[in-house]
Amino acid sequence: MTIDCTACPLRKKPLFTKIGADEVAFMRRFKTGEMKVSAGTQLLIEGSNAAQLYTCLSGHGLRYKTLADGSRQVVSFVLPGDFIGLQASVMGQMHHSVESTTDMTLCVFNRTEIWTLFKSYPERAYDMTFLAAVEERFLGEALASVGQKGALEKIAWALFRFFSRAKAIGLVQKSQCALPYKQQDLADALGLSLVHTNKTLAELRRRGLADWREGKLTVQDEDALAACGMVDEMDVPARPLI
């Protein structure tokens, strides 16, 4: 059974801004159903023109670009609450791929209805613009980290961002959250070799800043991890939920 938008478990999380009853009613019409996928499923493919948009209701995934030589650049990681596929709606095709890392449940929306949203519900249209701005801000921060920080600072920054986002959507318990990615995924995101990534994670464990293994991330001192990662703004900005 699908979850009614009025009972969406994500809407109660502190990360997401509140919306009115009329907007919830529109989202109920905008949503066409839910889709469950297993780990390793390609949700969107670079160069494709997908007919659907998604919101990640549960599970984890990643966005990536494949280069001509077959190498991969991870662009960002998909967590619950993320909106997926807007790029194809606006630009005609995807310029990156999206793949599930774990089993995922996705809210499915008909892409053709997005223009109705823009025409009839300007507040929700603004929300989509806001989400694009949040993504741009994050990518700018990520690029600065990849280009200007050392390996220790890069990985500390990435782990802090994962942890703080998980905390904002209620996925942290006893200083621990799920981080079900591979070290290679993190290496591909930060421009590091797998060996360098492994050694740097060991150094963060040795310093007592973060411990990531067997799909679990433990952070005992967020402030110290943020300081190591040279994090400029520690707060996770509130965002609308589509």
Give a structural overview.
This protein is α+β, with helices and mostly antiparallel strands and 242 residues long. It has 8 helices and 11 strands. The chain has a 4-stranded antiparallel β-sheet with strand order 1-8-3-6. Strands 2-7-4-5 form a 4-stranded antiparallel β-sheet. Helix 3 crosses helix 4, helix 5 crosses helix 7 (194-206) and helix 5 runs antiparallel to helix 8 (222-228). It is globular and about 55 Å long. 31% of the residues are buried. The mean pLDDT is 89.
Question: What features would you highlight for this structure?
Answer:
40% helix, alpha+beta, 242 residues, 4-stranded antiparallel β-sheet
Please render the helix and strand layout as text.
Layout (H helix, E strand, L loop, with lengths): L20 H10 E7 L4 E3 L7 E7 L2 E6 L5 E7 L4 E2 L1 H6 L5 E4 L3 E7 L3 H7 L1 H27 L2 H18 L7 E3 L4 H8 L3 H13 L4 E3 L2 E3 L3 H7 L14
Antiparallel strand pairs: 1-8, 2-7, 3-6, 3-8, 4-5, 4-7, 9-11, 10-11
Helix pairs in contact: 3-4, 5-7, 5-8, 6-7
In summary, what is this structure?
The chain has helices spanning 21-30, 86-91, 114-120, 122-148, 151-168, 183-190, 194-206, 222-228, and strands at 31-37, 42-44, 52-58, 61-66, 72-78, 83-84, 97-100, 104-110, 176-178, 211-213, 216-218. With 242 residues, the chain is α+β, with helices and mostly antiparallel strands.
What's the helix-strand series?
Answer: HEEEEEEHEEHHHEHHEEH
Determine the N-to-C terminus distance.
Answer: 20 Å
The gyration radius over C-alpha positions equals: 18 Å
Strand order, biggest sheet?
1-8-3-6
Mean pLDDT: 89
General shape: globular
Contiguous runs where pLDDT drops below 50 for at least 5 residues: none
Largest sheet: 4 strands, antiparallel
Q: What is the number of E strands?
A: 11
**Count of DSSP H/I helices:** 8
Helix content estimate: 25-40%
Strand percent estimate: 15-25%
Structural class: alpha+beta
